Amino acid sequence: AVIRKRFKALVDASLAGQPDGRLVVFLDDLDRCLPDSVVELIEAVKLLMCGEEGTRAVFVFALDRQIVGEAIRQRYPGSTGFTGENYLEKIFDLALEVPPVEHDDLKQFVVNRMGGDLSRLTDPFGTSSSDGLLTALEVLSLPMFANPRVITRVLNRLDLLVGHAARRDALAAVDDPVRLRRWLLWVAGAERYRGFRYYVRRVADAELLALQNALVGQPGELSAEGRALADMPGFGRFLGELFRGVQLKAELSRSPGAELSTVADFDHLLRSAGL
Predict the structure, then answer these.
(1) pLDDT in tens, 256-270
(2) Residue 185 DSSP SS3
(3) pTM value?
(4) How far is CA 137 from CA 52, 63, 104, 142, 184, in A?
(5) What DSSP letter does each residue of 129-145 carry, written as one string?
(6) Using CA atoms, how far apart are residues 250 and 54, in angstroms rounded to an integer?
(7) Cα separation of 190 and 153, whole Å?
């Protein structure tokens, strides 16, 4: 109660001379916080606002409901009938959906970043330019990557790779949309989830299995590093997209011909380029 009274007094002081004024506090990128921090912040705001009538403050949260909902579910595991979604419904009076990134908008952003020369991005691959572009746009529009900073860094990585003749020749082996998609996911994931690359190179199979189980809510003993990865926003979906339809263990071994076939081959090429 003391905290709420002091907060109300602080708001009133900041709005002195504005009897109809409101203090608006914007909290952005909540979905980038660790799960415990997300819940603690929401509950702290709820504490400030509940029970002290006449507090002239409005809090505006910008967040990914799915990711924050998952963070809440992790904070309160095993609660019967409890989901992140119904928790959020109890907290927020009004929710507005931000329109998804439109295909044409994302394409224009990529065109601008590549200096208008999209062929530099798509030509090195064995697929057609149109297939390559569509696949790149589809991957970059996934929620965990659809951020201008992340997209820019991913495109910078690709630009450095295709700017070298030997690496361009290697990329020509990525000659079907499915493999191209997995390649682009790994390049984007190497930017978004940097620690995962080093983690999978050195951990035992049992740890990888425990990580997979943790992401689907099954019990298992995870290292602190594995737990930190599992708790990262969007990581579960990234892993599911990356290893869709393939065996994780097989993907983490180099292919016999050392071509760009497996995730281990993809990572080897990035490392050879210092990326």
Answers:
(1) 876 788 889 999 988
(2) helix
(3) 0.67
(4) 48, 22, 9, 9, 10
(5) HHHHHHHHHHHHTSTTT
(6) 61
(7) 10
